[in-house]
Amino acid sequence: MVPHLTTALTGPILDLEQRIIDAMPRIEHWFRTQWVEHAPPIYGSVDLRNAGFKLAPVDMNLFPGGFNNLNPDFHPLCVQATQAALEKACPDASNLLLIPENHTRNSFYLQNVAALRYILQQAGLNVRLGSLSEEITQPTSLALPDGKELLLEPLRREGNRVKLEGFDPCIVLLNNDLSAGIPGILDGIEQNLLPPLHAGWSTRKKTNHFSAYDQVAAEFAKLLDIDQWLINPYFERCDQINFQERLGEQCLAEKVDSLLTRIRAKYQEYGIQEQPYVIVKANSGTYGMGVMSVKDASEVIGLNRKQRNKMSVIKEGQEVHEVIVQEGVHTFESLQDAVAEPVVYMIDRYVVGGFYRVHTGRGPDENLNAPGMHFEPLAFETACSLPDCGAEPDYLPNRFYAYGVVARLALLAASLEIEQTTPQNN
Amino acid sequence: MVPHLTTALTGPILDLEQRIIDAMPRIEHWFRTQWVEHAPPIYGSVDLRNAGFKLAPVDMNLFPGGFNNLNPDFHPLCVQATQAALEKACPDASNLLLIPENHTRNSFYLQNVAALRYILQQAGLNVRLGSLSEEITQPTSLALPDGKELLLEPLRREGNRVKLEGFDPCIVLLNNDLSAGIPGILDGIEQNLLPPLHAGWSTRKKTNHFSAYDQVAAEFAKLLDIDQWLINPYFERCDQINFQERLGEQCLAEKVDSLLTRIRAKYQEYGIQEQPYVIVKANSGTYGMGVMSVKDASEVIGLNRKQRNKMSVIKEGQEVHEVIVQEGVHTFESLQDAVAEPVVYMIDRYVVGGFYRVHTGRGPDENLNAPGMHFEPLAFETACSLPDCGAEPDYLPNRFYAYGVVARLALLAASLEIEQTTPQNN
Predict the structure, then answer these.
(1) What is the mean pLDDT of each run of 10 residues along chain A (426 residues)?
(2) What is the pLDDT, as a whole number, of residue A115?
(3) Per-residue pLDDT averaged across B58-77, rounded?
(4) What residues in B contact A31, CB-CB < 8 Å?
(5) Do B33 and A92 lie within an 8 Å CB cutoff?
(6) How far is B219 from chain A (nearest CA, A)?
(7) How far is CA B162 from the centre of its chain?
(8) A78, A336, A355, B379: least CB-packed within 10 angstroms?
(9) Residue in A77, A84, A349 closest to B76 by CB
(10) CA B141, B146, B152: angle at the middle one, nearest 5?
(11) Which residue of B has its CA nearest to A30?
């Protein structure tokens, strides 16, 4: 059984959560009309922060890597959502090519691929794994901790199609975030490629996502008649950064300062005693690389070598030239003194589960998705779709419903973002 | 927790079930393409019989009445399926009018309505209950066993819309099978009425359903390269029956005889030792009224008064003028000597759960849905969507997957049936 997150979840449902629960039919209706206008991404995961006074997404991953951390009780939900997604994307599909990340030695990640493969197979697809890695020149079997294995096969291009030996897929599903750039072998293929190439981190920018989220949050806040700041972290952007050469420090300090000033004003408005902070992170990329937590503008001036190194390079050795400066959202949730950050998983428009990233030895104002930091995943115990308006205020499914709503706002923002960033010549 | 159905389910997965599991991706692909051509009914339940050598639907209910018997663990599946259905049927809907049966004193049925209302509400709808009963002339509160209540309100017609006081629904969901006829108040309404009026038992005929099932079963059998008899019970029809006046007995005896002859031939072909039997039941209607089990044609000649009374009237006092004579399928499943019949529930195209109708004091060749007979519902313990090809042959989810497949064949037949019986002037 999944353990209770006692410390994280015994608090009463907060005013904001209660408003979300009370407005449930209106919210679901609003989402339905939104999804008619905007196709959701095939899947996604959202990192949330619950500060008590504020519940907001801080990151949106379009290539989710933790399907193995979901409660297996939710697998039927994942399968059903996948079937619904397939029906729209490609009802005629029977072969799906799954392209994972290249880091084949990370057994946590491999378990994610196995879990994802399982879900896709249960939805009735023939699934095979194709690798972008140059090291995979022939079918290569990788052992999983449970004794099963994954067979990685080399991709090959034939005309406008990408294939494996004896396998011609109708759908190509990326679970590789393309941090290293768009691989030529996938460029211009005629198959249904999900998510699209421009959703990969070689072109995607967090500031585009959070600009789209501004639109979504504003509309949702109007629907609920709330201050959109309660669900939306402020952010700014700095271009032309070069941490090694100390270029852009001044811009960074200015943006940090203006953001802290705006946050301070909001904290004053709501009588919040916490200390404001901001997160500076690479505008593209994932895995918590290139991230720092800042409480004063002076901290970003004159970084030492270690800090500069940490900030200047992200996954796949890509250099950082742009950063997002994002309002830090304190985390209200903890488990036995460890900070707990909820991560919500979605397939198509459906919330299919989630887990807590539980991090010992980290403060409530730090980044929980840091490189090399091991976190304990704690699967959500209940689904996110069953609020009970009449229930006690600390009824667990009600908190999870609110989390599912805010996660879907970020998913909707991702839809807008993908639309708005579609290359012109496509 | 839901108890294990030990006796019912410890047997090994049978050859037919194994073939279904092995063909899973092909089956799911086939269903996807079928649903592109044929819209599934909004919901339905299917009574299955597993004879070991044969697994077949024996009844298909388009107004399912046992949502309260499903495992609550599956509620998220029900909610998600409802959301998918709404998205297609009426993404703009926020108000749903649910029209239940008129028998307001049956507390089992009221619990079904409450469970259904809960699912619809969790999918984000404002749900109110409108009654077709002449007794409901003002809002009437009915107490449920758990202390909650249902508020039944009188329907009213305004122009081409049906409404409640202060409530204008976009969707009208029938959970009333219209055995008493099509109510004028619903005729020609402009709202989305689901299922359509002609799916009600005042016009629906079981033989139309099983004719459509013949088409579906033939195509599916071809896909799996099996004898379609393994999933399809033979049937015949007799018109111009009047049990009270002993009209039509001869036709009945002939059909019973020819059916038994055909079944006997199949039993011989497959080396089956059981005694063949047929079920004679009203061609329209539900609740197991007007049903008899027959092992020889002579049994339908010269019925005594009690038998004639039993056969001649079904629900709402409707007289029986047509019957379906259907091959009886032995039930292989039992629980502590009680016969167990699986019932599978679907919303839109998705299997969302099921339960066993467990009937003490009934033989494996009798009707388990008889009037006045109380059955024990036993919710399925796992979902129907997670087969495991590599698992042990008695792995529970594999049996349930096969049940879900055959139930969906009946659902697809219902889609065809509804298409084929749509009134010409609509």
Answers:
(1) 34 74 92 95 94 92 94 86 88 92 87 95 94 94 91 96 96 94 94 96 94 98 95 94 86 95 96 92 76 89 84 75 93 73 92 83 61 59 63 65 94 98 78
(2) 95
(3) 90
(4) 124
(5) yes
(6) 17
(7) 27
(8) A336
(9) A77
(10) 20
(11) B92
The pLDDT of residue B8: 45
Give the residue from chain A lying closest to B91, CA to CA: A32
Half-sphere exposure of B252 (CA within 13 A, CB side): 30
pLDDT in tens, B124-158: 999 999 999 999 999 999 999 888 899 999 999 99
Do residue A35 and residue B383 have CB atoms under 8 angstroms apart?
A: no
Q: What does the block give as tokens for B399?
A: 């049996």
- How much is the average pLDDT of B225-237? 96
